[in-house]
Design brief:
The protein is mainly α. The chain is built from 35 helices and five strands. It has helices at about 1-25, 40-50, 70-85, 95-100, 105-135, 135-145, 150-155, 160-180, 185-200, 210-220, 230-240, 260-265, 280-285, 295-300, 305-310, 325-340, 345, 350-365, 375-385, 390-405, 410-425, 440-460, 465-480, 480-485, 490, 500-510, 530-535, 535-545, 585-595, 600-615, 665-680, 680-695, 700-715, 720-730, 735-755; strands at about 515-520, 555, 580-585, 615-620, 630-635. It has a five-stranded mixed β-sheet with strand order 2-1-3-5-4.
Length: about 750
C-alpha cells in the first residue's frame, strides 16, 4: 500500500508540473502592449512612486479590492528593481520609472508570474483537499481537472486578484477539513489565518465563515444517516468511502486524522503509510494503541464494517465537542490578519467607504451590452459550456447530490456550505463575469472527483482485474474531460497577434507622424500626450528621448461608461472631432450599442455619420485570433496632418440633451487640451482646459490636472504673470487642502523664477 501512496503523490506532483508548463507557456501574450487592466500592478507602482522625491506611500488609495494582492505585487516590483540593478538594466529608480513608461514588458511578466504561481499552487492544494475527503483517486482526479482547465489557465496569465483569492479559499478549506479530522486549536488558528488572507485578497472571501462554522458544528459530534450507533453514523458523515479502489488509503476526514492512536495503528495494520481505512482501526483497539480505547470499540459497532472502522478516532469520547472559543478565536484571528494585510481599510476609512459603495453599485447595476440572461442562468451556462463542459458539470452535480443529499457526508456539507451561498450571492448581482466563478471552481471539481471515486469504488466489486479497473478509470476520466481537452485549440488562439497590435503597427507604418487620432476604448495602443503630460518634466524629457524614433500622434480616447452607458452619447458627436485626421472604432464598444439601437440613438447616428463623411482606410477583423474588429476612418478634408496645419479648429462645448453631467467632462477636455498643448497649440489648449473647469469636477485630482495644464499652456504662450494670477485664483477654489498647497507651491516656484529671470 505504501507504493500506491507514493505513486499517487508522484502523480499529483506530475500534475502540478503539467499545470506549471501550461501556465508558463505563452505568458508573454500581447506584450509589449497590455490588453488587461492589471490593476494590482498599477496600484503597486503608485505606492512605490519610483523616481519621485515623495517616497513610498503604503496607502494604495484604492479599495475596490482589499490590499493583500497589491502588496504582493508591491514586493514583486521591488524584487524586479533589485534584479534590474544587479544585471545592469537600470542604474537608478529614475531609470526604472522610465523603463516602465517606455516598455512595461518586464513589469507585466513579473506580475503575471505572481498570478501563475498562485494558480499552480492551487492544483496541489486541490489534490490535498480531495485526497483527505474522498481518497487518492478523488484527489488526483480533481487536481487533473483543474490542471488542464483552460479557463483557469487563461486567468493565471492575467494580473488580477481572483486567482490569488482562489488559492487562499482552497487553503482555508484544507484547514477546515483538518478541523473535521482534529478540531484542535492549531487547525482553527491555521484556518483563521488563511481565511483572513482570502478576505484580504477580495471581499467575497468573507463567505468562508460559512464552511468554517459548518465544520465546527459537525466536527466530532454531528452525524446523519441510517443506523443509530455512533460508530456507523460517524462513518457515514465523515467518510468519503474507505475502499481501496478509491485510492487505497480511504478518507482522511473519515479516517482519524493524525491522532497518536491513529499513527500507532498504521505500522501493523494496513501498512498504508497514512492508511485510515480497510478495517485497520478495528485492530487498533487491541493492537498498538498502548492502552487507548478506540471510539469504535466504545460503541461496539465499528468492528463490524470497514467503513465504521474508517470513521473512528481512538482515544476520544463519542460526546466530544469542540469549544466555541476555538471558533471565535479563528474569526478574531481572521479579522486581525485582514487588518494587518489591508490596514488602510481602517486608516483611510472614508476613502474605503466611498470605493466600497461604488463597487457595490457596480455589482448592483452591472455592465451594459453583456448577456441579458438572469445571472444564475448565465453562470450555469458558463459552468456547463465555457468552464467545464456538460459531462464534467453533470458528474459534479451527481457528486454533490450523492455526497450531500443522499449520504450526508460531512465534507460534502462543509463544501456545499460555501458553494451554494456563493452561487446564490453572485447570482443575485446584475454584474456578470465568468471570473467570479473561480473561487468555487475547485470545489465543484472536488464533487466531480468524489463522485467518480465513489463510482470506481462500486466498480471494484464488479471487476476483479486490477488492470481492467485502471483502464476503465482512466477512460472515464478522459471521457468526461473531452470538452476540457477540446478547448485547447481555442485556448492557444489567444497567443496569436491581437487585432489591436495589428492596427497599431499598420497605423504607425501608414499614418504620418503628427496626425490627430480619435479612438474608441479597446482600440490601438499608443503612448499619447495625455499620458506624458502627467509625468514630471525630467521624466517626460527622458521618455521622449527614449521614444524619439517612433511616430508621434495626438491621441484622444472617447469616453465609455460601463454603468449608465447613456452618458457617453454626448461624446458621440462628430463635430467635437473636427481636428481629427483619423477615427478608429472598436467592435468591443460598438457591438454593445448596436444591440440596443433605440436606447443608444445618438451613438448609432455617430456611426452613420462617420461612414458617410469619412473614408474607410482599413478594417482589422479577427481570424482565429483575439481582439475586436477595428475600423480606421480618415478625414477626407485634410491632406496635411494635424501637426503641420497652420490653424486648428479648436474645442467646442458638449451638447447635453439629457440635462445631466457624465462625470468625465473634465477628463475629456484635459486629454483634448494635452494633445493641443503637446503640438504647441497653446491657445486651443487653454480653451480646452477652461471647458473642463466649466463642468462639475467629481475627482479632486482632475482639478489639479486642469490647473497644471492651463498653467503650462499660459507659460507656453509667454504669459507667466497671467499664469501666476491664475494659480492664485485656482488655489482659492481648490477642493482639498493638499491640492491647495500643491498649487501655491507651484505659484511660489513660478514667481521665484520670474524674479530671477527679470521682466
Amino acid at each position: 500500500m505504501k507504493s500506491n501512496r507514493l505513486s499517487s503523490t508522484h502523480l499529483a506532483l506530475l500534475l502540478v508540473a503539467v499545470a506549471a508548463v501550461l501556465r508558463m507557456y505563452g505568458i508573454d501574450w500581447g506584450l509589449p502592449h497590455v490588453y488587461e487592466e492589471a490593476i494590482p500592478l498599477s496600484k503597486a507602482r503608485m505606492m512605490w512612486k519610483w523616481g519621485s522625491p515623495a517616497g513610498v506611500d503604503l496607502n494604495p488609495h484604492f479599495f475596490n479590492y482589499p490590499s493583500l494582492v497589491l502588496y504582493i505585487h508591491f514586493i514583486g516590483q521591488g524584487l524586479l528593481y533589485i534584479g534590474s540593478r544587479l544585471f545592469g538594466e537600470v542604474g537608478s529608480t529614475f531609470d526604472f520609472q522610465v523603463l516602465y513608461v517606455v516598455n512595461k514588458t518586464p513589469f507585466i511578466l513579473v506580475a503575471r508570474l505572481i498570478t501563475a504561481a498562485f494558480g499552480i499552487a492551487t492544483v496541489w492544494v486541490t489534490y490535498q483537499v480531495g485526497r483527505r475527503v474522498a481518497g487518492e483517486v478523488a484527489g488526483t482526479t480533481s487536481a487533473f481537472f483543474i490542471a488542464v482547465n483552460t479557463y483557469h489557465m487563461e486567468r493565471c496569465q492575467m494580473v488580477e486578484v481572483d486567482v490569488p483569492l482562489l488559492f487562499f479559499v482552497m487553503l482555508t478549506l484544507l484547514f477546515i477539513i483538518r478541523i473535521l479530522e482534529e478540531p484542535v486549536r492549531r487547525n482553527y488558528l491555521l484556518a483563521g489565518v488563511s481565511m483572513g488572507l482570502a478576505v484580504s485578497s477580495k471581499y467575497t472571501g468573507a463567505l468562508l465563515i460559512l464552511p468554517l462554522a459548518a465544520a465546527h458544528l459537525l466536527a466530532g459530534r454531528w452525524s446523519f444517516g441510517k443506523g443509530r450507533n455512533s460508530g456507523s453514523r460517524r462513518s457515514k458523515v465523515a467518510g468519503g468511502g474507505g475502499s481501496k479502489s478509491a485510492g487505497g488509503s480511504g478518507d482522511r476526514a473519515a479516517g482519524g486524522g493524525r491522532g497518536k492512536a491513529g499513527r500507532s495503528a498504521r505500522g501493523k495494520t494496513s501498512g498504508n503509510g497514512r492508511g485510515r481505512a480497510t478495517g485497520a482501526m478495528s485492530k487498533t483497539s487491541g493492537g498498538r494503541g498502548k492502552g487507548t480505547t478506540s471510539r469504535a470499540a466504545t460503541t461496539g459497532a465499528a468492528g463490524k464494517s470497514k467503513a465504521a472502522g474508517a470513521g473512528t478516532r481512538p482515544g476520544r469520547p463519542v460526546s466530544y465537542r469542540p469549544a466555541w472559543q476555538l471558533l471565535f478565536l479563528a474569526l478574531l484571528l481572521a479579522i486581525a490578519v485582514f487588518c494587518v494585510t489591508s490596514p488602510y481599510v481602517l486608516l483611510d476609512i472614508d476613502t474605503f467607504r466611498q470605493h466600497f459603495a461604488l463597487e457595490r453599485q457596480h455589482m448592483r447595476l452591472g455592465h451594459f451590452g453583456y448577456d441579458t440572461t438572469r445571472s444564475w442562468l448565465y453562470y450555469l451556462k458558463a459552468f456547463t459550456d465555457r468552464i467545464l463542459g456538460w459531462p464534467l458539470a453533470l458528474v459534479a452535480l451527481a457528486g454533490l447530490v450523492y455526497m450531500v443529499v443522499t449520504r450526508w457526508r460531512t465534507w460534502g456539507l462543509v463544501l456545499a456550505s460555501l458553494l451554494v451561498p456563493y452561487f446564490l450571492a453572485v447570482g443575485s448581482w446584475a454584474m456578470k463575469a465568468d471570473r467570479y466563478l473561480l473561487p468555487v471552481l475547485p470545489v465543484v471539481l472536488l464533487f466531480a472527483g468524489g463522485g467518480l471515486a465513489q463510482g470506481f469504488a462500486y466498480l471494484e466489486g464488479m471487476v476483479t482485474s486490477r488492470k481492467l479497473r485502471a483502464l476503465i478509470t482512466v477512460s472515464v476520466v478522459l471521457l468526461v474531460s473531452i470538452p476540457l481537452l477540446a478547448s485547447f485549440p481555442r485556448y492557444f488562439e489567444r497567443f496569436r497577434i491581437d487585432t489591436r497590435t495589428m492596427a497599431t503597427r499598420w497605423i504607425e507604418a501608414n499614418v504620418p507622424s503628427g496626425a490627430f487620432i480619435v479612438t474608441e476604448m479597446y482600440g490601438p495602443d499608443f503612448l499619447a500626450p495625455p499620458d506624458l503630460s502627467l509625468l514630471d518634466l525630467k521624466l517626460r524629457d527622458a521618455v521622449i528621448r527614449k521614444i524619439s524614433g517612433r511616430p508621434n500622434y495626438a491621441v484622444l480616447p472617447m469616453p465609455m461608461f460601463q454603468v449608465r452607458p447613456e452618458r457617453s452619447e454626448v461624446f458621440y458627436d462628430l463635430s467635437l472631432y473636427r481636428d481629427a485626421d483619423v477615427i478608429v472604432t472598436s467592435s468591443f464598444i460598438g457591438s454593445r450599442y448596436r444591440r440596443e439601437p433605440e436606447r443608444f440613438e445618438r451613438q448609432m447616428a455617430f456611426y452613420d455619420s462617420l461612414s458617410a463623411h469619412f473614408d474607410l482606410l482599413r478594417e482589422f477583423i479577427p481570424q482565429s485570433q483575439p481582439g475586436p474588429i477595428l475600423a480606421v476612418f480618415k478625414n477626407p478634408h485634410y491632406a496635411v496632418p494635424f501637426a503641420g496645419r497652420k490653424k486648428a479648429v479648436g474645442p467646442r462645448a458638449l451638447r447635453h440633451t439629457r440635462g445631466m453631467a457624465t462625470g468625465s467632462e473634465e477628463l475629456f477636455y484635459y486629454n483634448l487640451g494635452a494633445n493641443y498643448e503637446a503640438f504647441g497649440r497653446f491657445r486651443e489648449a487653454v480653451k480646452s482646459y477652461e471647458f473642463g473647469f466649466s463642468y462639475p469636477i467629481f475627482r479632486p485630482v482632475s482639478y489639479e490636472k486642469l490647473v497644471r495644464g492651463k498653467t503650462r499652456s499660459l507659460i507656453g504662450m509667454r504669459k507667466p504673470k497671467e499664469a501666476a494670477d491664475f494659480l492664485q485664483e485656482a488655489a482659492a477654489g481648490a477642493p482639498t487642502a493638499q491640492i491647495r498647497k500643491i498649487i501655491l507651491d507651484r505659484r511660489r516656484d513660478l514667481l521665484a523664477h520670474l524674479q530671477r529671470e527679470g521682466p
